[in-house]
Design a protein that fits this description.
The chain has two domains: 199 residues, Alpha-Beta Complex (2-enoyl-CoA Hydratase, Chain A, domain 1); 47 residues. Strand 2 and strand 3 form a beta hairpin. The chain is globular and about 70 Å long. About 5% of the residues have low confidence. The two termini are 29 Å apart. Strands 1-2-3-4-6-8-11 form a seven-stranded mixed beta sheet, with helices on both faces. A four-stranded mixed beta sheet has the order 5-7-9-10. It has 288 residues and is α/β, with parallel strands linked by helices. Helix 4 packs parallel to helix 5 and helix 8 packs across helix 9.
């Protein structure tokens, strides 16, 4: 696996290979559920990728065959949320007891946690490719769907698991699903929480391509390599315009399209595109 050649930070692997930043969840025994530390590190790496000229594409994938990501590690989250027990004289007097949760704490945790991670994928100025090797559930499903291109192994499943736990969807799920497959189908997935096999997910429009698990890594390298050799600013502008088009009116969308076009045509890659066309050769884009 390409990512294993890079650095390991806790339960994450990171490497940069010919413009492709590989971010790999490496907690296979826990179905690659995310601890808060993993979640926040991924957010930081994705945010940093926007301004790093060496990064021209990001791949987000995972190790093992049990899970791509099954959302938050609820055990780690519950440990963080539970205050340590007090002891001794201070406990009996109540002088140093930790205050209980305050209204707004949970919402703030979601905004600064999983919503930040999903936003980091959506807002990244570089294309982000998801390599879904196995089950993507809950926040892990939304993490995959926030990516620009989703490639799934045949064995992969997508599960809106929230209803099974008696909780509301989070991690940007309602925002993402309604835009990808429409409100009626999104409600069906949220209401019932049924497993969605990779082939069905592709038919719904949640997945771009389904491949044999043995071919997943090679397919990711091929797709990411093409994106890394593309005009990075033009690809980034296309990503931004498509995402914005789902939120603004036609006049605003057309205006932003014109502004983006003017900005991108001033890049070195745009000049290379025109020159290579005149010279009848394959362009060599540098991402600038």
């Amino acid at each position: 696996m390409v990512a294993e050649a890079g650095e390991a930070v806790g339960d994450l692997l990171r490497s940069l290979d010919e413009g492709v930043l590989w971010l790999t969840l490496n907690r296979p025994d826990a179905a690659n559920s995310l601890t808060p530390a993993m979640r926040d590190q991924l957010s930081s790496w994705l945010e940093d990728a926007s301004g790093d000229p060496a990064v021209r594409c990001v791949v987000l994938t995972a190790t093992g065959t049990k899970g791509f990501c099954t959302g938050a590690d609820l055990r780690a989250t519950s440990r963080m949320a539970t205050p340590a027990p007090s002891s001794g004289a201070a406990a009996s007097s109540g002088a140093s007891e930790a205050p209980g949760p305050v209204v707004g704490d949970a919402a703030r945790m979601i905004r600064n946690g999983w919503q930040r991670l999903v936003s980091a994928v959506l807002d990244c100025e570089k294309p982000v490719v998801a390599g879904v090797n196995a089950t993507a559930a809950g926040g892990g499903m939304h993490l995959a769907l926030a990516c620009d291109i989703v490639i799934a192994a045949e064995e992969a499943k997508f599960i809106e698991v929230f209803v099974r736990r008696g909780i509301a969807p989070d991690a940007g799920g309602a925002y993402l699903l309604a835009r990808l497959i429409g409100p009626q189908k999104a409600k069906e997935l949220f209401f019932f929480g049924d497993d969605v096999p990779a082939a069905d997910a592709q038919r719904m429009g949640l997945v771009n391509r389904v491949v044999a698990r043995s071919e997943l890594q090679g397919t990711l390298a091929e797709v990411a390599g093409r994106l890394a050799r593309s005009p990075t600013k033009a690809v980034g502008a296309a990503k931004w315009l498509v995402n914005r088009s789902l939120e603004v009116d036609r006049v605003t969308s057309f205006w932003e399209e014109a502004v983006a076009q003017e900005m991108v045509t001033r890049t070195d890659d745009a000049r290379e595109g025109m020159i290579s066309f005149v010279e009848r050769r394959t362009p060599e884009f540098k991402g600038r």
